[in-house]
């Protein structure tokens, strides 16, 4: 009998109980159990970020808290670029900086160049980019299984070993981190 991972255990608790919970991590059709839970969690985070930014006008999309901050549109493109980076690393064993696409690199790195260039487009532009990246993520993850998630790799920053599960967990962790940043910027934006 295989050991249950923490995620599998939690999934069994959530799916196996008859609670009236409003939210649940679900097995998704077409995915293996852990992969479905992973995609369910990623989609939940993306939906929560989307709710925070979807109705922003151009001023809100381009709002800059200070000269070291990032615009909200740029942050959404940064989330898409980070997910694209992990697609390249985990699906194709490549690095984004080997891809000759300056837009993705600018969004991934943020900083002065992003503050200058990533503005003037509606929030829907940035969300559409993220939707395209997410669609590709989900398409490829459907072809992978739970064993793939546990495969160890050694091409992480600093040459540390990691598995694909950690990589995609990190994508979620990154989204959650920026979700908090977006909430802070929106609060400050409403105060000004």
TrEMBL record:
It comes from Ekhidna lutea. Keywords: Signal. Residues 1-21 form the signal peptide. The lineage of its organism: Bacteria, Pseudomonadati, Bacteroidota, Cytophagia, Cytophagales. It holds the Pfam family MST. InterPro entries: DinB/YfiT-like (IPR034660), MST-like (IPR007061). This is DinB superfamily protein. It comes from the Bacteria.
């Amino acid at each position: 009998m295989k050991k249950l991972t923490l995620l599998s255990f939690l999934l069994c608790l959530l799916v196996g109980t008859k609670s009236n919970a409003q939210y649940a991590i679900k097995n998704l059709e077409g995915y293996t159990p852990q992969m479905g839970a992973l995609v369910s969690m990623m989609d939940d985070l993306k939906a929560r970020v989307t709710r925070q930014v979807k109705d922003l006008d151009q001023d809100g999309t381009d709002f800059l808290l200070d000269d070291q901050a990032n615009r909200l549109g740029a942050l959404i493109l940064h989330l898409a670029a980070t997910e694209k980076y992990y697609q390249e690393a985990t699906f194709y064993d490549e690095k984004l900086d080997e891809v000759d696409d300056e837009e993705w690199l600018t969004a991934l790195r943020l900083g002065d160049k992003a503050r200058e260039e990533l503005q003037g487009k509606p929030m829907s532009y940035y969300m559409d980019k993220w939707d395209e990246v997410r669609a590709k993520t989900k398409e490829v993850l459907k072809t992978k299984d739970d064993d793939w998630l546990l495969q160890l790799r050694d091409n992480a920053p600093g040459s540390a070993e990691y598995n694909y599960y950690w990589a995609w967990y990190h994508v979620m962790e990154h989204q959650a981190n920026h979700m908090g940043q977006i909430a802070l910027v929106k609060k400050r934006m409403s105060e000004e």
